Amino acid sequence: MTGNTESITVIVPVYIGSDLSSFRTSIRSLLNQSRQPDELVIVLDGPIKEICWTYIVESLVLNKLPFSVKLVCCLNNKGPGYARNLAASISSSIWLAIHDADDRYARNRLEVQLDFPDFARHF
């Protein structure tokens, strides 16, 4: 991990059971953040549905987003813990935010996280 003290990476694991409609809604909540992430790391935890793959490539990887996107592919499903740790290991930010494929963030979630940097130092 490198980066400045205000940088934040959002980690999104996706697996074959991920529902496209929920995933789109999840990503929309990320794109509507009051404070955008500096980086998005999507981990394909094993094979995924073709429709999800198409959405990821066309809407997230090839589209011009206001932050960088990294895509990591695992040949076999290893579980969300493995996927999150893998993403964390290639993150270029100080702060990490876990965002599962069916999560919906409050509009100020990332902004609030960065407002409490001292809180994390106590753990």
Molecular structure report:
The two termini are 18 Å apart. The protein has helices spanning 20-31, 50-61, 80-90, 109-114, 117-121; strands spanning 8-14, 39-45, 68-74, 95-98. It has a four-stranded parallel β-sheet. It is of the alpha/beta class and 123 residues long. The mean pLDDT is 89. The chain is globular. The protein has one domain: Spore Coat Polysaccharide Biosynthesis Protein SpsA, Chain A (Alpha-Beta Complex), CATH 3.90.550.10. The protein contains five helices and four strands; from the N terminus they run βαβαβαβαα.
Write the layout of secondary structure elements.
Layout (H helix, E strand, L loop, with lengths): L7 E7 L5 H12 L7 E7 L4 H12 L6 E7 L5 H11 L4 E4 L10 H6 L2 H5 L2
Parallel strand pairs: 1-2, 1-4, 2-3
First-residue to last-residue Cα separation: 18 Å
Low-pLDDT residue spans: none
Shape: globular
CATH level-four homologous superfamily name: Spore Coat Polysaccharide Biosynthesis Protein SpsA, Chain A
The pLDDT mean sits at: 89
Q: Class, according to the CATH hierarchy?
A: Alpha Beta
CATH A-level architecture: Alpha-Beta Complex
Number of helices: 5
Q: Give the biggest beta sheet.
A: 4 strands, parallel
- CATH names the topology as Spore Coat Polysaccharide Biosynthesis Protein SpsA, Chain A
**Roughly what fraction of the amino acids lie in strands?**
15-25%
The value of Rg in angstroms is 14 Å
Helix and strand string, N-terminal first?
A: EHEHEHEHH
Count every beta strand, where a strand is a DSSP E run of 2 or more residues.
Answer: 4
Q: How much helix is in the residues? A: 25-40%
Total of domains = 1
What is the spatial order of strands in the main beta sheet? 3-2-1-4
- Global structural class: alpha/beta
